[in-house]
Amino acid sequence: AGMNGTAIGNFACVIFNVSFMNCTWHVGRTATEDTQYFLYWRPLENEDITECQNYIKDTCGRHIGCRFQNVTIENNYAYFLVNGSRSGQSIQELLLMNSISGYIIVEKLTPPLNVTVNCTEASHSCSIWWQPPRTSHVTKKSCFKYEIVIENK
Predict the structure, then answer these.
(1) Which residues of the chain have pLDDT under 50?
(2) 45 belongs to a structural domain
(3) Are 91 and 126 part of one and the same domain?
């Protein structure tokens, strides 16, 4: 429910450098300057729900995102809740979310490490191998797809 037009839009989170996560949202289209939003989340099913510790703010001082450190997400599970208040009146629960597969959370991967190229002139062939990137939550090696571009100088 909630006050018409004050609910947030475009909620999305990006994990980068393995342990940092930024979540952002757009303020509701009819939200006044004194509308404030609060993000709560629970990274693991059995943990307590906690409020964001480090909000990102717009020029009016409204919360439009959150910066997280040392993020651990297991089994593609994360539960988010954004609620808000305007003129001291509560705007109801605006968002309830779950799952990385739903693209609420996207991870920007670090590049592959130790790329090794071994070419043999006799067979006109090259072998290329590398270490997959570290990630915050993807455990299956099959999740990665790499594109190799070979430039012939």
Answers:
(1) 1-2, 99-101
(2) yes
(3) no
